[in-house]
Amino acid sequence: MNSIFNFRTYQLSFLFAKPYLWISFMLTVFMLFSGKLIFKISHPIIMVLSSKILFYLGVFLFYFEIGLRKRLTFYQNFGVSKTVLFVLALLFDIIITTAFINLIHLF
To answer: Can you give the pTM of this predicted structure?
Structure first.
């Protein structure tokens, strides 16, 4: 539990989340523009955030494979568990997405 209070934990979590943040950002942009133009969704933030939770849940389950589990050894050597890594990556993504959606709504 002490690893949550270290700055290095957040650095490592952001390092882990960078490739997924780009994929998630492209997913957000696609869902926002297609949701407003095609489906006429009134609350796109709920749709986008629920899809992100499902995306990170899929990535979390994907890392149970033996070959991909070895990639997490670097983070586990610093004392960051897999669960903390994915939860912090999801929180980074939710913060960035919420800021992006609120910024878009200003224009």
So the answer is: 0.82
Rounded Cα gap, residues 97 and 50, in angstroms: 12
pLDDT single digits (tens) 28-81: 888 887 766 666 667 778 888 888 999 999 999 988 888 888 888 888 888 888
Angle formed by the axes of helices 82-105 and 44-62, nearest 10°? 160
Q: Report the 10 Å Cβ neighbour count for 26.
A: 10
Domain regions of the chain by residue span = 2-105
Q: CA of 70: how far to CAs of 6, 47, 57, 73, in Å? A: 23, 33, 19, 5
Instruction: Please count the other Cβ atoms lying within 10 Å of the Cβ belonging to residue 75.
Output: 18
